[in-house]
Design brief:
Order of helices and strands: HHHHHHHHHHHHHHHH
Bound molecules: magnesium ion
Strand content: under 5%
CATH superfamily: ADP-ribosylation/Crystallin J1
Shape: globular
Oligomer: single chain
CATH class: Mainly Alpha
CATH architecture: Orthogonal Bundle
Length: about 300
């Protein structure tokens, strides 16, 4: 592969990495390691058994909201704040069959859209909804529900400052918590550097400067709290050296496995590329889902001047 082909492979790797991680982790979600071992042995394939009834190969909220972010941005004019377009995609998903909708995202979407009646809430409505959700949750809006959906921002913005602003603002649509927004900004920075071909140690240098993620994780906690989730994903990523082994090790921790899987899938996809994802996992993905992932990859390819 030449440089541009490699870049496009990484862009596709991020999007497919999120989807594959979500689908692999779906049967492990809400189970602990002992239960996973007893029921599945080790999860190495996309298999049925989702507690929340996710359809095989279709993903859950992680993939759905990631595509909503991508497709919302794809509808924006250059320089337009994407919150309104992304929000309209969130509401569309919410009004359909929102498999795996989280408590924080769910409340914020309900408030912003007045329970689905407003199809395209304003920027102000999202800010108010997010703040109200935060107070209703007694200040605990630091879930991983924004980190799981933020990867397309790294793929669709080439300017560092604009990418940081959008990652921050799109997190704040549903999660008022600063830690959630900070994690999104860091995650997008790492992915952006990786797709541009920077060395791994340079791509992750932003972690060294952060107070929360500057130490090597030895005890991953796959909870729904954003700092735990991001640290678990980083643990899996640094601990193993192939797309396949990273994903298998992370999802078999259980807990919020689909989300830790989706998040580490984005990182591993950015490092190793689409071509490193096992064929059997790609084949297990739903056809319509792949069409949407490909359309998002194509849009990102245009932004960076690579791809088809
Ligand atoms: Mg999920």
């Amino acid at each position: 592969m030449n440089v541009k082909e490699k870049m496009y492979d990484r862009i596709r790797g991020v999007l497919y990495g999120v989807a594959v991680g979500d689908c692999l982790g779906a049967p492990a979600e809400f189970r602990d390691q002992a239960e996973i071992a007893a029921r599945f042995g080790e999860i190495r394939d996309i298999v049925p058994g989702s507690v929340i009834g996710a359809r095989l190969g279709c993903g859950t909220d992680d993939t759905a909201m990631t595509l909503a972010v991508a497709e919302g941005i794809m509808k924006c004019k250059p320089g337009e704040n994407p919150v309104r377009q992304i929000g309209a995609e969130f509401v569309r998903w919410f009004c359909g069959e929102p498999i795996g909708l989280g408590g924080t995202c769910g409340r914020a979407i309900e408030f912003a859209s007045k329970y689905g009646r407003v199809k395209s809430p304003s920027l102000k409505a999202w800010a108010a909804a997010s703040e109200m959700t935060h107070y209703q949750l007694r200040g605990r809006s630091g879930g991983n529900g924004t980190l799981m959906r933020t990867a397309p921002i790294a793929l669709l913005y080439t300017d560092d400052a604009e990418r940081d602003n959008v990652a921050y603002g799109v997190s704040k649509m549903t999660h008022w918590d600063e830690d959630a927004a900070t994690a999104c900004v860091l995650y997008c920075e790492i992915i952006s550097k990786l797709i541009q071909g920077q060395k791994l140690e340079d791509a992750v240098s932003c972690l060294k400067e952060s107070k929360d993620y500057n130490e090597t994780v030895t005890d991953p906690q796959p909870t729904g709290y954003v700092k735990d989730t991001f640290k678990t994903a980083l643990w899996g990523w640094f601990e193993h050296n192939s797309f396949e082994s990273i994903l298998i090790n992370v999802v078999n921790l259980g807990g919020d496995a689909d989300t830790t899987g989706a998040i580490v899938g984005g990182l591993a996809g950015a490092e190793f590329g689409y071509s490193a994802i096992p064929d059997r996992w790609i084949e297990a993905l739903d056809g319509k889902l792949k069409t949407r992932l490909d359309a998002a990859a194509e849009a990102a390819g245009k932004v960076w001047g690579c791809g088809t």
